[in-house]
Amino acid sequence: MSLPALALPGQLLGPSSSYLPGPGTHIHGSNLYASLCGRPTTAAAPTKPSSKHPVKPTVTISRLPSSSPSTDLGPVSERVSNANTLPRVGDVVLGRVVRCMVRQVNLAVMVVYSDGEDGDGEGVVCADEVQGVVRREDVRATEKEKVLVGEAFRVGDLVRAVVISLGDQSNYYLSTAKNELGVIMAKSEDGNTMFPISWKEFRDPVTGEVETRKVAKPL
């Protein structure tokens, strides 16, 4: 499995049997995942003459420059749209939560995938801001009336969702009502990047505190 040109938080990079985790990555289960949005690089550790086993390369991800995501990134720049990229119904998107309300959550869409609902194809970074809304009834597929938006999402969460409607003039309607959709990256109240421990919980690796979310199943 080759590394992607641009990795997004929560994206599968490969099995832990083939790679060692470096800065910007983490191990979950038996796989290596991205913790940051950036360009993955590998560095092979020096092999010892007496070693009978090959040394696994270490994968490191450097955070993208905030000023210009397409600067000096080679092939990655081809993924940044020069024109406004508008999602279509059925497209998978990645967005950051900018506002939580009782009946809905607002997202700033950052990346659009047009290869179906797997969200593992080539994504296009939105050049202009695109707004999306996940309504309470679209958070999950079952027991919709029991959903508490404030327990499913928090401001700053990175969310994988699918476009279900073009909505109104200002917002696309999105859904996270599938196992592979939902929060893929979240920070705790103490500001630490958490890891998922179930379909509805993240844990702070520093404090051990558990917070509720609508967790996306890792792809």
Write the layout of secondary structure elements.
Blueprint: E1 12-15, E2 20-21, E3 25-28, E4 31-34, E5 38-43, E6 58-63, E7 92-100, E8 104-113, E9 123-135, H1 149-152, E10 158-165, E11 172-175, E12 182-185, E13 195-198, E14 201-203, E15 210-212
Parallel strand pairs: 2-6, 9-11
Antiparallel strand pairs: 1-4, 3-4, 5-6, 7-8, 7-10, 8-9, 10-11, 10-12, 13-14, 14-15
Which properties best describe this structure?
three-stranded antiparallel sheet, 15 strands, 219 residues, five-stranded mixed barrel, mainly beta
Describe the structure.
- The protein is globular.
- The chain has one helix at residues 149-152, and strands at residues 12-15, 20-21, 25-28, 31-34, 38-43, 58-63, 92-100, 104-113, 123-135, 158-165, 172-175, 182-185, 195-198, 201-203, 210-212.
- The protein is 2% helix and 38% strand.
- With 219 residues, the protein is mainly beta.
- The chain has one helix and 15 strands, in the order βββββββββαββββββ.
Short overview:
By secondary structure, the chain is mainly β. The protein has one helix and 15 strands; from the N terminus they run βββββββββαββββββ. The longest helix is centred in the C-terminal third of the chain and has 4 residues.
